């Protein structure tokens, strides 16, 4: 039986992926940052770990335990992450550092620990959850954009370094998908952005906060979390997965336009979104 370690399984894409893989007879090690979420996963019948990806020891413990139990690890899905809204000029270095600690450095820590194991056992799959915002950038999403662009650079390099091995690096570029992402982003926005003293104060109040506070998924081409989970399943089912998978029509459209439009024209187009 193939097994996989997934981070960020408290809800949304991580949880849905864990459920779909489990139903398809994969052994899923589902992890979450909070104890209550780990308990929820245990109640659903998963092998679980409490992993805060910012904590190197959490990751080491999980991998060592998996190897002790199964003698191998077939794949990891680096899914944990969050979005920090706010204009670039309103992002303190500390807030940006926190965004990178989870979205990028945490992902990298699991990646390099998995790579050591995969090199030793001679096979493995690393599935990196990027975003359409790792391909194009949208205003007031600078921290998240930057963290996802960093993942793209890391993946593009790592793929070249595993050529000729039986190790595969797959990047998933997800567009608008139903999850608690917006709800969590609103908390980070209210906590870390000085709305009243910002040049963008009125925009924040009239547009950004309204969008984050809505409970409806009004984004064009929005898909359920299962759309990403099914891509992970596809990767697990193939012996030679692709380097990149686009999820949602929005990702396909924007990825194409990025390739064919001039930078200035693309900026004007994206500024309307």
Question: Would you spell out the secondary-structure blueprint of this structure?
Answer:
Elements: E1 3-6, H1 12-23, E2 27-32, H2 35-43, E3 47-50, H3 56-70, E4 75-78, H4 93-121, E5 124-129, H5 142-161, E6 167-174, H6 181-192, H7 201-213, H8 226-237, E7 244-247, H9 249-260, H10 263-270
Parallel strand pairs: 1-2, 1-4, 2-3, 4-5, 5-6, 6-7
Note the main attributes of this structure.
273 residues; alpha/beta; 10 helices; 13% strand
Helical segment count: 10
Shape, principal axes of CA atoms: globular
Please give the number of β-strands. Answer: 7
Helix content, binned percent: 40-55%
Unreliable spans are none
Integer average pLDDT? 95
Description:
The chain has 273 residues and is of the alpha/beta class. It has helices at residues 12-23, 35-43, 56-70, 93-121, 142-161, 181-192, 201-213, 226-237, 249-260, 263-270, and strands at residues 3-6, 27-32, 47-50, 75-78, 124-129, 167-174, 244-247. The chain has a 7-stranded parallel β-sheet with strand order 3-2-1-4-5-6-7, with helices on both faces. Strand 4, helix 4 (93-121) and strand 5 form a beta-alpha-beta unit. The longest helix has 29 residues, at 93-121. 40% of the residues are buried.
């Amino acid at each position: 039986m193939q097994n996989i370690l997934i981070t960020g399984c408290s809800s949304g894409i991580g949880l849905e992926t864990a459920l779909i893989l489990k139903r398809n007879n994969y052994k899923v090690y589902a992890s979450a940052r909070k104890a209550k979420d780990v308990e929820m996963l245990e109640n659903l019948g998963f092998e679980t770990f409490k992993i805060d990806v910012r904590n190197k020891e959490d990751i080491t413990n999980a991998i060592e335990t998996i190897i002790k139990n199964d003698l191998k690890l077939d794949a990891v899905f680096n899914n944990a992450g969050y979005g920090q809204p706010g204009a670039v000029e309103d992002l303190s270095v500390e807030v940006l550092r926190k965004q990178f600690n989870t979205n990028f450095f945490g992902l990298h820590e699991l990646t390099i620990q998995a790579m050591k194991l995969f090199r030793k056992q001679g096979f493995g799959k690393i599935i990196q959850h990027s975003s359409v915002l790792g391909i194009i950038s949208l205003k007031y999403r600078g921290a998240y954009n930057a963290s996802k662009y960093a993942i793209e650079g890391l993946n593009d390099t790592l793929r070249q370094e595993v050529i000729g091995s039986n190790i595969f690096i797959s990047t998933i570029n997800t567009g608008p998908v139903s999850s608690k992402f917006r709800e969590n982003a609103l908390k980070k926005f209210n906590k870390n952005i000085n709305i009243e003293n910002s040049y963008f104060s009125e925009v924040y109040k009239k547009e950004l906060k309204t969008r984050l506070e809505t409970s409806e998924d009004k984004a064009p081409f929005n898909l359920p979390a299962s759309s990403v989970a099914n891509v992970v399943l596809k990767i697990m089912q193939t012996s030679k997965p692709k380097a990149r998978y686009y999820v949602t029509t929005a990702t396909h459209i924007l990825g194409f336009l990025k390739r064919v439009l001039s930078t200035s024209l693309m900026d004007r187009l994206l500024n309307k979104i």
